[in-house]
Task: structure prediction
Amino acid sequence: MSKKKIFSLILCIVCFATLLVSCAEDDDNQFWLDKYKEMNKGQPEVVETVDIDFYIIKGEGMSEDDRITKAVQDKINQSLNAKYHTNINIKYISESDYASTVNGFTEETSGIVLINSEETMDVLSGKLVDLYPYIHGDGYKTEGFGQLNKQISSTLMNAAIVEERGVEKLFCVPNNHVIGSYELIVIDKQLAFEAGYPYSETEFKSLNTWSSTEDLRIKAGLIGDEFNNVDYKDYNPASGAVVTRIINAPYKAIAEIENQGYVVNVAKYPEADSAEVYSSAFAVLNAAPKVYVADNTTVEKVVALDTYKLRAMQVIYAINTDSNIRNLMLYGVENINYSIDSITQTVVPNADKPYDMKLEYTGDVFKALYSEKWTKEDYDNGLLQNKDSEK
Result:
């Protein structure tokens, strides 16, 4: 046998031996991989923690001490992190600075943003995530977000849906609040009698439009419509002898005015239009946030868009359904920023550590603890007013 053939044979033997060793190592690796999977069966999957900016308007009496707002944020994040592996970085912005802040958003700005007006919605046009699938699509099945249709007034939720090229979309989730106001026909029966127009009680109750009171107004010498659509806060029965007028008022005004001896008929029930929806809602900017991983070098990483949208929706869901998170957002931390009066069971703010936010801007008002600004009466009347909005 030639030296060349002997060398080739040796080379083949070495390669074969190497292959046998390699196969053995592969089998060994697979064995331990299978063993590891078996040992860790049922262990929770490691989930990425996501930080999301949250832009919101603060109250005029908010403390300038950042430690107060940070304590509130940390407390909120304890719950959000445990439930959703998500933290929010709350940006407390004054109402006077909010418009300029929103105007400064770029295509790369991410986060949850408070919608406080139609103007804000216009500025953010094209920059918001369509949340419709989370409420009416797969999100309804997998995450239960569809419960918001029961939690939040259906009048508000339906009014928030817009149609683009025949497709229904939802660019914000309204914060549940007391909807609109009534238009009430207020009639002074005594003046009507004095004007020589003795209506029966049934006839009085049938006058529920401005035009239906025309004969009465003519008889009383009141031809103009200067008393049409007076706001309730400007309404004073003793301000002048007016036989009939229309006022814009909340639900509680009906009984209050009737108790003064007037006939009160509803000319128009509360309703939610786009202005009502956009007065207080949460939306999600459609740019995914970036995170920075501390390694030998700082590496910039973009959170997956689907993950970001889901987490943002979970935060909005929590604020509108979890009373603990919702009240942290509104009142701060109990026994630090406020206490509960043992007799009235209402919130008493701590003047030394003021945490001041607007009721409607911080989630579902019907999940809020009672206070001087949000009483049990407000709660009850608000629910009745919202129920009437569905007529």
